Amino acid sequence: MRDFPSTLGSLRTSQFSEQRIAGRNVKDELRQNLICKLQRGEELFPGVIGYEETVTPQIVNAVLSRHNFILLGLRGQAKTRIIRMLATLLDERLPYIAGCEIRDNPYRPICKRCQDLIEAQSDDTPIAWLAPEERYVEKLATPDVTIADMIGDIDPIKAARSGRDLSSELTVHYGLMPRANRGIFAINELPDLAGKIQVGLFNIMQEGDVQIKGYPVRLPLDILLVFTANPEDYTARGKIITPLKDRIGSEIRTHYPITVEHGLSITRQESWTDRVSSIRLEVPNYIREIVEQLAFLAREDKKVDKRSGVSQRLPISVLENVVSNSERRAFKAGETVAVPRVMDIYAALPSITGKLELEYEGELKGGDAVARELIRAAVGKVYTGYFDGVNVAQIVQWFELGGSLKLDETQDSTAMVKQLANIQGLMDKTAALGLGASEPDALRASAAEFILEGLYAHRRINRNEELGFTAGERKRENPEGGEGRRPPRRQFN
Question: What's the pLDDT tens digit per position in 269-302?
Fold first, then answer.
């Protein structure tokens, strides 16, 4: 590599001297680089939102303490993203003996092949260089993972080609962990590893010893071990062997966004809504808030399994589907602006039901029914935030006097605004959402429909598939004390 020494002799006289490279392990390297970032005030995990006061300080403490650590959290809590970003704390370049499977330290080689090579070639030993991303190795733990995958195995073909005895260290084909030497080795879903593999990990962490096919191989690997797991699996008896758990220095709990604002920021960052399109896409804030509240309410709902959790991928996927549905409608109607409506959230049910693990009560009710209830509750909560204390009696009265309105999901914005304008006082209330009469019909239609959906969520009016929005089910009393009859309904299509 240009500008970097290519032989051991030139390496000794460079800035990568033996004093700097030989005596510092990967945990020291991470610690020193982290300290530099802290002193410069740099952001440690850009793009990870909501962990600034909770998870990030604990990770910093673990790295400063030179701990192997584990991130415990439910799905969709950015665990994998965080551990992958640890590679940004590694040096820009690191020298190793060229061709070495375990990226041996040129000054302190631990494998037999490199020791023999340096003895034979001395200062002419070739040197190669590692980038930070090459020093990060990740493995998803599954029950079928073997010791050979993680540690290594005897390679009879290598032995035959080199004419060596099978007991020779030079016949070993190294697994993932030795190949992560002088770097970071991450294991996702640690409890899914078989017990004997966990014993192998414990042995590496504790003694640096490896036994392959009954042959002891001394490999004092230089590794930072990082794990992820579901809290319930990790704490379940028998899932993790006690000696391994005892050797994990820090146990760090991740969490879902604590505030809706954090959730909104994450979803805005991760969702594919700024897409290239021949029409202009505008997503109102209240639509984003409904989608986010949907996830927050699902995490609290008794019909949803708390042990499985509700991933942050739910609002991300839902918002993408909502935008796509509004985009589809605009293309078919020949409009130049696409604005999502609440009915588009109902159209996004496929991106909700697949991400909800239901309890028994929820299973009885059905995934679609549970999702619809959550959407209605989310609409009601967001509606309250915008219209708490706003007098909407005129709108409700229009329905109580017999009015009804059936809206079509595929209806173009201009026709929909004409329908909605028949409801007395409705279009005026869109001003509370920051809209004026000069706004595009797509925005005005979406805002007015949101108001109606909010009234429906608060049971001020009713809605069904056949008739659309109608009067609520509140009973009225006539002067004689009986239940009065409603006047004939007026329906606008």
Answer: 999 999 998 999 999 999 999 999 999 999 999 9
Question: pTM score, two decimals?
Answer: 0.87
CATH number for the domain that contains residue 89: 3.40.50.300
Q: What is the distance between the alpha carbons of residues 339 and 350, in angstroms, rounded to a whole number?
A: 20
Q: Say whether both 176 and 303 belong to one domain.
A: no
Q: 4-18: per-residue pLDDT in tens?
A: 899 999 999 888 887
Q: Name the residue type at position 144.
A: D
Q: How far apart are CA 387 and CA 318, in angstroms?
A: 24
User: How far is the CA of 312 from the CAs of 81, 108, 288, in angstroms?
Assistant: 13, 45, 14
pLDDT at 212 over 90: no
Residues 138 and 216 in one domain: yes
Report residue 491's pLDDT band, with 50, 70 and 90 as the boundaries: very low
As given in the structure block, the two tokens for residue 235 are 């704490």
Q: What are phi and psi of 72, to 5 degrees?
A: -105, 125
Query: Which residues form the domain of 376?
Result: 260-471
CA–CA distances in Å: residue 383 to residues 88, 326, 370, 372: 43, 21, 20, 16
The Cα–Cα gap between 60 and 76 comes to 21
Q: Supply 330's token pair.
A: 């605009």
Same domain, 249 and 267: no
Identify whether 488 is part of a domain: no
Residue 469 and residue 405 in contact, taking contact as beta carbons nearer than 8 Å = yes
Which of the residue ranges 6-10, 191-195, 247-251 would you say has the lowest mean pLDDT? 191-195
Give the position of tokens 């002419």: 124
Widest distance between CA atoms in the chain: 111
User: Is the same domain home to 70 and 183?
Assistant: yes
Domain count of the chain? 2
